[in-house]
């Protein structure tokens, strides 16, 4: 095992993640593994930044030449006004989770949705075109995912939400990119029966509420792909019951790994060591 601080010298480039809270984040161990694996001289830490310190943080990034920053809850929206440029995808989603610092010029990206789609294609559904997609939930996570999925030529994307207004608003935002439809949760069972891909983007079933699930057992048809953004637990009740019904399941860890991998690629211009990154996060969850 490497000694702490090994390889850090006067050329080491700084990276980090900001959030409030932040001490639970798995990003530092994952990205530091990526730097070690690729031999890049970088170090990645976690910064606990409260809302009132965002502007000071940005000044610090510029002053110290921090090359890359990941942004998590609750700053994904409010960080945008501090940046010099926003990537069109991040602008459409309305959230930034990755900042690239090019000699003091800061650009914001959103790698969550693209990271999700990459993970889904690699692990469970190589081709999304022509598929009927059902997204459960219409919050921040759903926005990024619907945006990215809409670029994959699905037959349609149905968004089901407890609060239908939010599903309708989300469907409207991306209606130029794909066939989008909003429904209330009372039509969820019917929608499950018609979908090729069902995705849970809500927190229903997340630790410690592991007995909760957003759908009834047997609602989703055999052979469908069933996906959950939750990765604690790695296999939720939603996924367990879908597997018992003969569905192919896809957990949330891959999205986390790939959003970090795409950020790494923006910062370094090099392909990310995705396998090693996943292995490190997996080991830390046990
Ligand atoms: P995130 O950024 O993780 O998406 P969010 O923006 O707070 O978090 O969105 C949470 C989503 O989970 C919403 O779609 C929410 O439904 P509402 O819009 O009706 O609030 C959904 N959600 C959370 N808890 C839920 C529950 N117990 N039952 C059904 N939906 C729930």
TrEMBL record:
Gene Ontology biological process terms from the UniProt entry: amino acid biosynthetic process; aromatic amino acid family biosynthetic process; chorismate biosynthetic process; shikimate metabolic process
Enzyme Commission number(s) of this protein: 1.1.1.25
Residues where shikimate binds: 25-27, 72, 97, 112, 231, 259
Pathway(s) this gene product operates in, as recorded in its UniProt entry: Aromatic compound metabolism; 3,4-dihydroxybenzoate biosynthesis; 3-dehydroquinate from D-quinate (NAD(+) route); Metabolic intermediate biosynthesis; chorismate biosynthesis; chorismate from D-erythrose 4-phosphate and phosphoenolpyruvate: step 4/7
GO molecular function terms noted in the UniProt entry: NADP binding; quinate 3-dehydrogenase (NAD+) activity; shikimate 3-dehydrogenase (NAD+) activity; shikimate 3-dehydrogenase (NADP+) activity
Keyword set, alphabetical order: Amino-acid biosynthesis, Aromatic amino acid biosynthesis, NADP, Oxidoreductase
Family: Belongs to the shikimate dehydrogenase family.
Start and end residues of each SDH C-terminal domain: 252-282
Matching Gene3D superfamilies: Leucine Dehydrogenase, chain A, domain 1, NAD(P)-binding Rossmann-like Domain
Record's function text: Involved in the biosynthesis of the chorismate, which leads to the biosynthesis of aromatic amino acids. Catalyzes the reversible NADPH linked reduction of 3-dehydroshikimate (DHSA) to yield shikimate (SA).
Domain Shikimate dehydrogenase substrate binding N-terminal: 17-99
Catalytic activity: L-quinate + NAD(+) = 3-dehydroquinate + NADH + H(+); shikimate + NADP(+) = 3-dehydroshikimate + NADPH + H(+); shikimate + NAD(+) = 3-dehydroshikimate + NADH + H(+)
Active-site residue numbers: 76
PANTHER family: BIFUNCTIONAL 3-DEHYDROQUINATE DEHYDRATASE_SHIKIMATE DEHYDROGENASE, CHLOROPLASTIC, SHIKIMATE DEHYDROGENASE
Protein name: Shikimate dehydrogenase (NADP(+))
Subunit: Homodimer.
Domain Quinate/shikimate 5-dehydrogenase/glutamyl-tRNA reductase: 121-203
Residues given in the record as NADP(+) binding sites: 137-141, 161-166, 229, 252
Top enzyme category: oxidoreductase
Database matches in Pfam families: SDH_C, Shikimate_DH, Shikimate_dh_N
Record InterPro entries: Aminoacid_DH-like_N_sf (IPR046346), NAD(P)-bd_dom_sf (IPR036291), SDH_C (IPR041121), Shikimate_DH (IPR011342), Shikimate_DH-bd_N (IPR013708), Shikimate_DH_fam (IPR022893), Shikm_DH/Glu-tRNA_Rdtase (IPR006151)
């Amino acid at each position: 095992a490497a000694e702490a601080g090994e390889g850090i010298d006067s050329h080491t480039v700084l990276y980090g993640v900001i959030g409030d809270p932040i001490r639970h984040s798995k990003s530092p161990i994952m990205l530091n593994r990526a730097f070690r694996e690729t031999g890049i001289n970088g170090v990645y830490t976690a910064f606990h930044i409260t809302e009132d310190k965002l502007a000071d943080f940005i000044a610090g990034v510029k002053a110290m030449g921090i090359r890359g920053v990941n942004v998590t809850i609750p700053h994904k929206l409010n960080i945008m006004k501090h940046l010099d440029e926003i990537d069109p995808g991040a602008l459409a989603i309305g959230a930034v989770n990755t900042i690239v610092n090019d000699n003091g010029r800061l650009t914001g990206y959103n790698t969550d949705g693209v990271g999700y789609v990459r993970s889904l294609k690699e692990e469970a559904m190589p081709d999304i075109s022509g598929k009927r997609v059902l997204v459960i939930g219409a919050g921040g996570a759903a926005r990024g995912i619907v945006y990215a999925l809409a670029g994959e030529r699905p037959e349609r994307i149905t968004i089901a939400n407890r609060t239908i207004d939010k599903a309708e608003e989300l469907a409207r935002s991306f209606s130029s990119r794909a066939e989008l439809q909003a429904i209330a949760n009372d039509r969820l069972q019917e929608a499950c029966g018609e979908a090729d891909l069902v995705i849970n983007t809500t927190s229903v079933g997340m630790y410690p509420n592991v007995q909760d699930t957003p759908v009834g057992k047997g609602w989703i048809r055999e052979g469908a792909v069933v996906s959950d953004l939750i990765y604690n637990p790695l296999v939720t009740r939603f996924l367990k019951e879908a597997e018992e019904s003969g569905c192919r399941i896809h957990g949330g860890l891959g999205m986390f790994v790939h959003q970090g991998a795409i950020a790494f690629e923006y910062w370094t211009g090099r392909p990310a060591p995705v396998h090693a990154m996943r292995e490190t996060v997996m080991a830390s969850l046990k």
